[in-house]
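Box S1 | Example of a co-folding query
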Amino acid sequence: MTVNTQPVTESPDDPRAFGLPLVDAHSLPAELRTLVSRVHDLVDAVANTEVDTDTLAETAATVEGLTDRLNVARRQIGAMVRRELGDGTTMVGTITNIVEGETNPAAPQLFLDRTDEGLRAEVTLNTIYQGPPGLVHGGWIAAMLDQAVGSVSAVETSPGLTANLEIDYRRPTPLFTPLEITSWVERVEGRKVFVAGRIRAHGQVTAEATALMIRVEADG
Ligand SMILES: CCCCCCCCCCCC(=O)SCCNC(=O)CCNC(=O)[C@H](O)C(C)(C)COP(=O)(O)OP(=O)(O)OC[C@H]1O[C@@H](n2cnc3c(N)ncnc32)[C@H](O)[C@@H]1OP(=O)(O)O
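Box S1 (continued) | Returned holo structure for dodecyl-COA
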């Protein structure tokens, strides 16, 4: 397991001040990233397979053995990861975050990067995230937008929690299609950060969000 040995700082943005382990994204072993990717593919294969029952039973036994093997050393709940964005700023989040966690095979691993307006990511979703036939589940659309607006609030102000999230579903959001997700801060009033985000497919808006984030620690 990767352990960050840098000294704990007193910054409220540093999770080690709250007793949570923190690792740098670039220090995660390539073997772990490969395993996450393979298991992501496995989830998709399981969700869609029509193989015979013997193969299903055999595969289930193999997977159970692999699960036991990995469970001998587990991370602490709340373990955090620090990742560097394109412009050099750093962002901290839980390492198993369901939308962008580096070690979570169920996550689409949205990689939000900084732009002049806020944050932007591109992601293509498969049937793991399916709601209506061929379309992204509405709850996942909300989850991705929640992450995008929460992250832009954290990066541009300081970390907080979503108090309110409103989604307008404008058009169906397709699977197997590059989606562009953007988010930005509209205004800040003390601990309240008013944020917004959008998903586009083929350049057309499929969903829009507005949200209120409440900063856990104000800057002062
Ligand atoms: C290192 C980490 C990395 C973080 C990296 C970031 C990525 C995270 C992305 C995912 C985000 C999530 O999923 S977060 C998980 C989902 N959200 C949650 O679990 C939050 C649950 N709710 C809460 O814990 C609480 O309600 C809080 C913390 C949001 C607010 O509680 P509080 O701190 O006591 O503050 P409170 O006084 O109630 O409210 C402050 C001000 O906001 C207003 N306010 C509060 N709620 C609302 C509301 N729903 N709609 C309108 N206004 C509201 C109040 O009227 C008040 O205004 P005024 O009187 O001052 O004018």
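The beta strands are 22-24, 80-84, 90-94, 113-114, 119-123, 160-169, 179-189, 192-201, 204-215. The chain has a mean pLDDT of 92.
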